[in-house]
Design goal:
Elements: H1 2-13, E1 22-29, H2 36-50, H3 53-61, E2 65-71, E3 77-85, H4 89-101, H5 113-123, E4 132-139, H6 149-158, E5 161-168, H7 176-184, E6 192-195, H8 201-214
Helix pairs in contact: 2-4, 2-8, 3-4, 3-8, 5-6
């Protein structure tokens, strides 16, 4: 009987219900086409989205782990905020504040989406307890550096990593980049949200986070 109780206790301690639901890399484009004002629009929009009451509550309920990385050309990927579990509302508030306060990284260059994906996939080794692994990548242009995107996306899918994206279109009439991201960037189980120009980014990131953390990731 005592042995059975210990067995039940051990199962409870390792139950998936107690584990991190999702590990989410927030991959923000800081390539040369993103000027300082546009960078601030992205960071403030992301911080505001994280502090949306419904999103913040879902992050805590799912024990979601967040990491923030900035990327641009070949060899330029930076983990700006390391993995942080969202266990309390204060954790979410602190991560949002840190996001808002990060100065724009220097030495930004071209657009190496494949490099950003490869770098992001490598980060998941630090969060093996998380049931789902998602890269949340935003960008305003097609890959023009490195040209490793097909292999990087295939490797992510093979590893069981979902890639979602925000396509930041040049204006509110274009969908060209959205189509490119849908065909070449996201994994088969991923999705694209369109931002109709950078002023629409705050709405787009909130919409994407809602889909990622409020509904189960498939």
């Amino acid at each position: 009987m005592l042995r059975s109780l210990f067995t039940v206790a051990a199962l409870c301690l390792t139950s998936p219900a107690l584990a991190c639901e999702t590990a989410l890399v927030l991959a923000v484009d800081v390539s040369g086409s993103i000027d300082p004002d546009e960078y601030l629009l992205q960071t403030s929009g992301l911080a505001d989205a994280l502090q949306d009451p419904e999103i913040a509550s879902a992050l805590v309920a799912g024990k979601v782990s967040l990491a923030l990385m900035h990327w641009s050309g070949v060899g330029y990927q930076r983990l700006s905020l390391p993995w942080t579990p969202m266990l309390t509302p204060s954790d979410v508030a602190r991560f949002a504040l840190a996001t808002r306060q990060i100065a724009r990284p220097r030495d930004y260059t071209d657009t190496a989406i494949g490099g950003a994906i490869t770098f992001s996939v490598r980060q998941f080794v630090a969060v093996p307890e998380c049931r789902h692994r998602v890269i949340d990548i935003s960008g305003d242009g097609e890959e023009n550096s490195g040209l490793t995107l097909p292999a990087a996306r295939a490797a992510a899918a093979t590893a069981g990593v979902t890639i979602n994206a925000i396509a930041i279109e040049v204006d509110d009439t274009s969908t060209a980049l959205t189509g490119y991201f849908r065909r070449f960037v996201i994994t088969p189980d991923g999705f694209v949200v369109t931002a109709n120009g950078l002023p629409d980014y705050p709405r787009a990131i909130q919409s994407k986070l809602r889909r990622e953390v409020i509904k189960p990731v498939s």
